[in-house]
Amino acid sequence: MSTPRLVAEFASAEDFLGGYEREMSKGGLLVRGASLPPGAALGPCVVAVSVVGQAPVEVPAQLAAAVPGVGVAVMFPGGAPAPLVALAERLRAPPAAEDEAEPEPSADEPPAPAHNPLMSARLAAMTVTEKMQLALSGDREARAYLLRDTNKSLHVYVLRNPRLGLDEVIYAAKMSTLSPDALKLIAEHREWGVNSSVCTALARNPRTPVPLVLKLLPRVPLAEVRVIAKGQGRAPIVQAARKIVLNEH
Prior knowledge:
The protein is α+β, with helices and mostly antiparallel strands and 249 residues long. It has twelve helices and five strands. Strands 1-3-4-5-2 form a five-stranded mixed beta sheet. Helix 1 crosses helix 2 (82-92). The termini are far apart.
């Protein structure tokens, strides 16, 4: 059987550098949109990294896990491969655009989990792959910590944990630091995406993509829609909320 070949596409240098800092430099990568044939064994693979305006770079990797509907996670056992390190250094040469400012925490932002030095030390000693495995099978405390991990590729793995409760999903949906992939996964889930509390949390989250919020608004309780309609949120969402309120009269 031939070695699987995955393609990781990045729309810009900034997009690649963000992924490099969060994932590749730590020994892993979530190849979004990729999939594996049913029953495919985890083993060696080749990842072709494509950045707009740059020649593609192919590097060896190890398949770590498949996340249905999201992508395939791979790891680089020896750390980031030299070709990716070189590509990152080359792309850093021009002045980088400033990152988008993080939104101010809202009143809906859930509190961080109680600090546990042992859990913090445990996570600090883990590799990306070990954190992925913990996210898929860990207990409530581990899940709460990993939902706030700066490596945002881990967030979708937490949401795939079979022990995850609805209250944890609502907690995650309120987080402005949750990854876009995780917010999308919650919104499109067949059960979570029709739950009024989850939809409300997503609609009020300043990081939920506008198109997703517009789809969810009809599932948000009218009282909450009125609050959104009177707020100072993103214009398309406020306008859509006002339209729903007017149609109720």
